[in-house]
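Researcher: I'm preparing a figure for a lab meeting and need a structural model of a single chain. I don't have an experimental structure, so a prediction will have to do for now. The sequence is pasted below. Please return the structure as tokens so I can convert it later.
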Amino acid sequence: MKHFELNEFVVSAMAKANKIDNTPTESATRHINEMVDNLLDPLREAWAVYCANEHIGTPALRVLSGYRCPQLNKMVGGSPTSAHAAGYAADIVPENGRLLEFKRFAREWLQKTGRKFDQMISEDEDGKGVPQWVHFGYKRPNGDQRKAFKSYFKKQYIPMTK
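Model: Understood. Here is the structure written out token by token.
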């Protein structure tokens, strides 16, 4: 991990408020590291170049949600087969606030580089396609990588908006 720390994927206000131990298993810790090394760190490095070239501020990325132990995953309404519960997913926002640009950049980068991933979801988009955060799933718990691009808009998944 170059640009992230394990703690960023584990900290949860909901877990803390409900006294849930969200410490990842050894397997989940390995999965988090695998996802960061193979997907999120390279994305962060490419985003840094873009931010510098476009003069749009810090390229830092913040993890809103990462690993979720089974109890926490159930509490937030996550699927029992959620990649979050396996340590293979993270919800990310750019610190510079450029959510629409980040969404577009990440999609293009994933397509151009042929990087392996399961899904990228632009979550809770507004009418202009601006997400509240971007979900990156590296693998499904069964190891599949579908390379899917989706938007979550008006409580339904649709093909990713531009």
